[in-house]
Design brief:
Layout: E1 3-6, H1 12-23, E2 27-32, H2 39-44, E3 49-53, H3 59-73, E4 78-81, E5 86-88, H4 96-124, E6 127-132, H5 136-139, H6 145-165, E7 170-177, E8 189-191, H7 221-233, E9 240-243, H8 245-264, H9 266-269
Parallel strand pairs: 1-2, 1-4, 2-3, 4-6, 5-8, 6-7, 7-9
Helix pairs in contact: 1-7, 3-4, 4-6
């Protein structure tokens, strides 16, 4: 039995993962900004679920949650940084305050969670960190520049963290989901207040009023949760897990395009060395 600490559990993948973890017999610290949304989980698993309020932009609250988790269950064995939200705007359109709030939640919130659990994980030389990213970090759609940037930042950090922690017995896995049937493209999605007409045919097409994907996404959150469980419990967790047929196909297409462009500019790239 392991103890999982999962952020952003009110809906979607976070809720599905919390339910799967508990159904598999593990302990789970299940968190959300509004913990009242999690009362059904607490009632269903009174002995193994600890439901707590958590805003990942509040460092003091993070410390309290980790301390309560350790007091109740002894340690945190698995941290899942799932809390976050989407934001759509052309780069020029975005409000400065919106951008900072997005990075505070999607990037720095995860950083603060990681720093809060690592001392105990290092002491016992074991643990797993799962950072929920997005295929958006790779495909970088128009209108999702800032959201993609937060996930790219999280992935860059995770790659270095993986190399720092692997010798200490701690795994780090980035999960890149495609489109899953959650509230991500609905209630959880925010956007710039003032669109600019020149971006109507690019970023504008991805604004909430023009997007028809919500409710039709192909991915099943329950199956994604089971996949994450399987990865964490494996002997050698991968540093990257892509989830969904759409994400898998997009990942391959981007990789092929990048290799082709790299090769196209090979001569110029290699021409910059100092000649003896």
């Amino acid at each position: 039995m392991a103890t999982w600490l999962i952020t952003g559990c009110s809906t979607g993948l976070g809720r599905a993962l919390a339910q799967a973890v508990l159904a598999h017999g593990h302990n789970a610290v299940v968190t959300a900004r509004n913990s009242a949304t999690l009362e059904d989980i607490a009632a269903a698993y009174p002995d193994t679920a600890l439901v707590l309020p958590l805003d990942v932009t509040d460092r003091a609250q993070i410390g309290t949650v980790v301390q309560q988790a350790q007091t109740r269950f002894g340690s945190v064995d698995v941290l899942v940084n799932n809390a976050g939200y989407g934001y759509r705007a052309a780069v020029e359109e975005a409000d400065d305050a919106d951008i900072r709030q997005l990075f505070d939640t999607n990037v720095f919130g995860a950083v603060d969670m990681i720093k809060a659990v690592l001392p105990d994980m290092r002491a016992k030389r074991s643990g797993s960190i799962v950072n929920i990213s997005s295929i958006g970090a790779r495909i970088k759609p128009a209108g999702s520049g800032y959201y993609s940037a937060t996930k790219a930042a999280l992935e860059g950090l995770s790659g270095s963290l993986h190399r720092e922690l692997q010798p200490l017995g701690i795994s780090v896995t980035v999960v890149e989901p495609g489109a899953f049937r959650t509230d991500f493209a609905g209630r959880s999605l925010t956007q710039s207040a003032m669109p600019i007409g020149d971006y109507a045919e690019t970023a504008g097409k991805r604004r909430k009023e023009n997007d028809t994907i919500h409710g039709t996404q192909p991915g099943d959150p329950a199956k994604a949760a089971e996949a994450i469980l399987k990865v964490v419990e494996s002997a050698e967790p991968p540093s990257l897990l892509v989830l969904g047929q759409d994400a898998f196909g997009a990942f391959g297409a981007v990789a092929e395009a990048e290799l082709a462009e790299l090769d196209r500019w090979r001569e110029l790239s290699l021409s910059t060395g100092i000649e003896d």
